[in-house]
Design a protein that fits this description.
With about 230 residues, the chain is an alpha+beta fold. It contains nine helices and five strands.
Amino acid sequence: MDEKNAHEGHRARMRQQISERGVDGLPPHNILEYLLFHTIARRDVNDLAHALIDRFGSFSGVLDASREELKKVPGCSEITAAFLSALPGIFRAYQEDKLIRGLVFEEISQLGDYLASLFVGRSVETVVLLCLDLKNKLICSRVVASGSVSHVTLPIRKIVEVALSVGAVGIAIAHNHPGGYAIPSSGDIGATRQLQEALIPLGIELIEHVVVSEDDYTSMRLSGYLSRG
């Protein structure tokens, strides 16, 4: 069997396997190969899949890498790099859309868990806003600011505008510390209290502010930085 037919046979077998059984049990490089099939049509991608995982340390490391870093790996084109780097955002959109329908937060801890899940794959500091109704049902989830790897400004005016536009009674916010610790800085605490003060005259409660790291998060409410109004 020539090399071209061998590659085509490998793709056909993998596609059939995934069609019948999904990706459960497949090694990471095979899952990555399957993704690469969608941007690289006529050559073997096994070596590229291994090279990417070797370069970034893991399957998740590949998807978390920036487009520019991905392109530095020989064989990874602009189209492939753009496709791979877009996947974490697609996964977040799927998760948010699935969870938002009818979601009600009965405990502060539920807010923290949900907010932390929205930062998967984010490599720059980002502020996320949740708007809630009187029964703590989720009205909307919005990214309201993005910054650098080490800084983002809490956009108080924008948060207030969004909350008013959807008729929110309460809000919860979160931001991340990429590569750092889930510990609120003095700036985080000061900006959070300014936001809380801006919301009080409007009858909107700041229920929670969560600081998220790669594998942890801190609730500013449960840590005592916020008091229920």
